[in-house]
Amino acid sequence: QEQLVESGGGLVQTGGSRRLSCAASANIFRNNNKYWYRQAPGKQREFVARITPGGNTTYVDAVKGRFTISQDNAKYIVYLQMNNLKPEDTAVYYCKMYFSWGQGTQVTVSS
Question: Can you spell out the DSSP letters for 12-71?
Fold first, then answer.
């Protein structure tokens, strides 16, 4: 299984910003959709955002207008820019490409 390496999580205050990164190999990066999911304590993992190889994006309603997914096709990295963070955004964030998942990165938003 291909390895995905996430980074960028941490503690941030309400209203702050954070950028998550997910690095992959060229083999899995090319020609596959890239996803961000999150899992809050006691809740199921949920879809957050998706970007296609052509750059089309989709978001869950809860993050529309605040989060932006993007990709660097030269570096094989997918990003999740998170602005105006809220306490309810607190979760472990995972990237996914094809059947591979990252290890997760914790984002905690303090009120």
Answer: EETT--EEEEEE--HHHHTTS-EEEEEE-TTS--EEEEEE-TT--EEE-GGGTTTEEEEE
Q: How far apart are CA 64 and CA 45, in angstroms?
A: 18
Model confidence pLDDT, tens digit, residues 13-22:
999 999 999 9
Give me the amino acid identity at 79: Y
Each residue's pLDDT tens digit, 59-97: 999 999 999 999 999 999 999 999 999 999 999 999 999
For residue 4, give the 3-state DSSP assignment: coil
Question: Residue 92: which of 48, 38, 45 has the closest Cα?
Answer: 38
The count of residues in the chain is 111
